[in-house]
Structures are given as C-alpha cells and as structure tokens.
Amino acid sequence: MSFSGKILDWYHKNKRTLPWRKSTDPYKIWLSEIILQQTRVAQGTPYYLRFVETFPTVDDLANAEEEQVLKLWQGLGYYSRARNLHAAAKMVVDEYNGKFPDNYKKLLTLKGVGDYTASAISSICFNEPHAVVDGNVYRVLSRYYGIDIPINSTEGIKYFKALAQKVMDPDHIRDYNQGIMEFGAIQCSPKKPLCLHCPLNDSCVALEKGLVHQLPVKLKKTKVSNRYFNYLIPIYKDTNGKKYTRLQQRKGKGIWQNLWEFPLIESKSSLENKDIVLKSNVIFGDLDINDIHIYNDTDIVHKLSHQHLYTKFWIVDVNTDFDHKISVEKLSEFPVPVLIADFIKAFKF
Question: EC top class, in one word (predicted)?
C-alpha cells in the first residue's frame, strides 16, 4: 500500500469526531482553520462553537463590531488572526457578494489566508488537489522520508510543499489532507509518537535511523525580548458604594492592537513603589490619590512568542471622581488580553 493509501486507511479508522467535519461549508471550514492556527484542537473547539453560534453566516460576522469579534476571541492569543478574520469576512461580503471563493487562487486574496488555509478550504470544500502543509504534515513527512532541511527556512517551505503535492492522493484529497494532519496530531505526535503501532513503521527513515526525536529540524527562533509592564488600576467609590476604574485602548501595530487595558507604565526594569508614585502624576494629573499599593510583589511573567512581559499591578485608591471611568461591573464587556482578564478575575474589586 502506498504512503497516501496508508494515511487514508489510518484516518478512516481513527479520525476524531470534530464539529467542523460535519460540514463542507467553506465559511465553517475557514473559521475552524483560522481558529486552529497556533491553537490546539481542545482549546479551539469551544471558540469555534461560540463563533458559529454568534455568527451563523459570513454576513453576520462581517456586520459585527470589531470589539465583539475581539471579545469572542479573547484568550486565544495572536489577535491579528481575529482582526484578519473580520476583515476577510467583509471582503467576502463586499467583493464576492457574500459567497465564499470556490478555488485556491481566489481564496488567497482574502485577508489572513495563505497557502495552508487556501489549500485546506479548497480541498475540503471543493475537492481541489492542493496538499496542506502545517506543523503536523511537516513532522510526518520529515520523519518518514528522513529529511533534515529546516522546515521554517525558505528552502524547507518550498521543498516540503513540493513533496506534499507529490505524495498526496488527488482523487481523495478531502480525506487525505485531513488524514495526514490528524495522523501528525495523534500518531506521529511531537514528543511521544506511537511508533510501535504505526502503519508506516516498516518504511519510516527516522525510525530506522533513530532520528524520530531529531526531526523535523527548525531554525532557532528570534531572540526573546523582556519588557516590564506596570498597570495602574485606579479605584474610585462613589457615595452609593459603587466602584469605578479606567481602561484604555491599545493603538498602533504592536501587541494587542485595539484591545483594552488599564493605564500602563512601561519601564526598562522592574519598578518600586516610589517610582510608581512619581510616574502616576503623569497619568492621573491632579487626581486626588489616597494610596498606591502593589497587588503582586513578584512579577507575573506573561510569555508571548517573541516577548516576555514582566508585569506588576498597582492599586490606586482615589478620593475624587475622574473622567472616562468605567463601573467595575462592566469590565467583562471589554475585549482585553488574557493577562488583564486573569487579573480582573482574581482581584476582588
């Protein structure tokens, strides 16, 4: 049996029951693929279900406010995916009259859709013979054929795409593409592959040469930078005992674009109480501050792909009312980074 034949046979016996597999609707397949980029299936599935429930059609998603989309996405990270998702939905409605493009080339015109996503949608929904190449596929192909070309190099990307096209089953492309990704996720997993019971173990080069845990090869990531965030949480209580605070929206092209956060002081190193007291005047001006105290003595380290955020939260008790205040009951309505969401959940306002 051929490589693709074994993959198909394995898939038909072992495939998981996943909600998007019940459909060939390109909107739902696209939604699942965008959500599952850089996200595990177990984590992404509840988000997929919420998105489908909230936005049953691409028109519903296109007509939504960006804040609603970001709020629904909260916790998945890589928020540019959510902004691109929203922008692509608008493109489908405005440029394709609400009907998803039905081929690979047109799918590539959508915001946030690259070769992998276009291949997945076109093959699953329209049976176009385009092989998918994601992290799972890289791992299966590099191990089975014993290839040590770095998968994140220009040469590697071209090589593995060509190889994937060569070994795919074009007549059963829908199941084959889903099958090889599923095979990589379950059978040929990163750390504990099930080599003993693998249908490919009689011809896998990596297994034969003892290279299973050395493949695939990946170039070293960009150096991680450290940033120091100090969030100031102003709290004002009115005569009725109702509490208020303040949020501000992040702008620019950096992390968390258009998400909300508490007033922020970014520094080159960890700050002490005296530093915060001095710098708080810049943020709050003439506001009558009663007390400033730290919430967490030890920095909370929030790890992003190329950045580690060393974060402290400072509670600022104020005696007077202030502009742009938000009642603490409404904090949950704003799309915020998970770092902020965790603080809001833990802190007893």
Answer: hydrolase
Q: Looking at the chain, which residues constitute the CATH 3.90.79.10 domain(s)? A: 225-346
CA dist 265 and 285 (Å) reads: 14
Tokens of 189: 């997993």
**CATH 1.10.340.30 residue window(s) in the chain:** 3-209
Task: Look up 208 and say whether it is catalytic.
Answer: no
| pLDDT tens figures, 46-56 | 999 999 999 99
- The full DSSP string for 66-103 is HHHHHHHHTTS--THHHHHHHHHHHHHHHHSTT----S
Q: Cα–Cα distance between 65 and 63 in angstroms, integer? A: 7
Chain segment 74-101, per-residue pLDDT in tens: 999 889 999 999 999 999 999 999 999 9
Instruction: Select which of 33, 128, 182, 261 is catalytic.
Output: 33
Q: Kindly report the CA angle at 252 between 247 and 256, in degrees rounded to 5?
A: 55
Domain 3-209, what fold? Endonuclease III; domain 1 (1.10.340)
Distance from C-alpha of 59 to C-alpha of 62, rounded to nearest angstrom:
5
Give CA–CA dist 103/96, Å, rounded. 12
pTM summary value: 0.85
Q: How many residues does the chain have?
A: 349
| Domain 225-346 is found in CATH 2.40.50.100 | no
